[in-house]
Amino acid sequence: MEDHHLEPKIFACSQSEILAKKIAKYYGIKLGNVVVSRFSDGEFQPAFVESVRGRRIFIIGSTFPNSDNLMEMLLMLDAAKRASARHITAVIPYFGWARQDRKDKPRVAIGAKLVANLLQTAGATRIMTMDLHADQIQGFFEKPVDHLFASTLFLPYIKNLNLPNLTIASPDMGGSKRAYAYSKHLECDVVICYKQRLKANVISTMELIGDVENRHVIIVDDMIDTGGTLAKAAELMMEKGAISVRAICTHPILSGNAYERIENSKLLELIVSDTIPLKMESSKIKIVSCAPLFADVMHKVQDNKSISGQFLM
Length: 313
Fold this sequence. Notes:
This is ribose-phosphate diphosphokinase. This protein is α/β, with parallel strands linked by helices.
């Protein structure tokens, strides 16, 4: 029997269970059964409670720290490989450790490459992810990578706001390509923040390239960690005469006192996807789910159909 006539199975790592349930619902099948046994020292062992022999399976899990989340994905991949699954797709909505994508100073690891090697060694035959921190991380894999863009989710949201005088902003030089892609679809201007950091997560100076006076600004970025950059950017833009400032960030890492920082910032709202579960609710944070997009692409992969129509950027 041809393998794509067999229904695939979808499994969840524990950190992404809520999202995986949504994806499975959109896909139209029930989430597969996994049991995780835990030892008292913190070691754990996931086990599939149903046969996966000869099947295509999707294992859903974002690999944000702590490293147990990555370890659980690796153990699940290895278990699936040893249980004779035919195709094993690691669905990693947020690909953690991706900020270490090159040697930006002497004697450091290239963490993203290491993670890519680990995933392939563990048994992933395909990777599906969204808004990688750097596009070239795809090149760290020898297996096919489906790199989805969150713009597919966020562009309709922006269009529904019907904002006059819209301007898209990039919070740093590195995100300018993303900002230009959004502006092309929305046919609007772009401004860029130029920031200098003394060390990770600490900004020393920030300047604005471009004009935001009397404009509604939307800052786009791939992730929000401490929220420092966005809060500072929003404040700078309001000082320069912007009418309103919103931010769109795919991955809501939101560590440290990020929630407090967002609440107290000049941001009108922060729009994120659910690649990482929120730790708390906030009146300013709106979620646009990535579940329909992943379910749709998973269907196409299962049916050997082209997914290029999903790429707005």
